[in-house]
Amino acid sequence: MPLSYIALGSNLGDKKNNILEAFDHVSSLGNTSNLSDLYETIPQGFSSQPTYINAVCDLQTFLTPWDLLHKLKDIENMVGRTRSFINAPRIIDIDILIYGELNIESPGLTVPHPTMHMRYFVLKPLLDLNPFIKHPVWGGFLSRFAAKLDPTSVRECLADSTLVNKP
User: Fold this and answer.
1) Residue 74 and residue 71: Cα distance in Å, rounded?
2) 90: annotated active-site residue
3) 167 is a domain residue
4) Could you say which of 37, 58, 81, 119 is catalytic?
5) pLDDT tens readout for residues 17-76
6) Please, where are the H alpha helices in 89-147?
7) Active-site pick, 90, 119, 144, 160
8) Active-site entry in 37, 67, 74, 95
9) Which of 29, 123, 150, 157 is geometrically suited to a Cys-Cys bond with 146, CB 3.0 to 4.6 A?
10) Three-class SS of residue 23?
């Protein structure tokens, strides 16, 4: 089973609980061993909205990348996501960051995530899980990308998530 990394974000309702509920659902899709710490982050794009909580989990699954994407969208719907406009506030947002070593560019699915290397709020929790992870296509350490970004977009670590990590 390929090792994937999944980003989780929420800025509406009980944000921490939304992340934990989504993580529980993602865990049912395969073997999940880690959830990063939860970080409060400043909104990107449309900035007139509440702060986010962001996290990343790892996942090993037999699902194809497209099947995984559909299951993640189903989880977003179960948790209560509605779509109004790009970068709108949301109860939950779940994205595939990396799916093994695959490079996919198709309508509706791009893996690795095309903007993850430009988003500190994604790289910080991803690097918590794997500080030596390389970009599957470009080969460079993602920590080098993170070092070039403004860390102030991640305001603070909100909670240690070791209670939800599985052995």
Assistant:
1) 5
2) yes
3) no
4) 81
5) 999 999 999 999 999 879 999 999 988 777 778 999 999 999 999 999 999 999 999 999
6) 120-129, 142-147
7) 90
8) 95
9) 123
10) helix
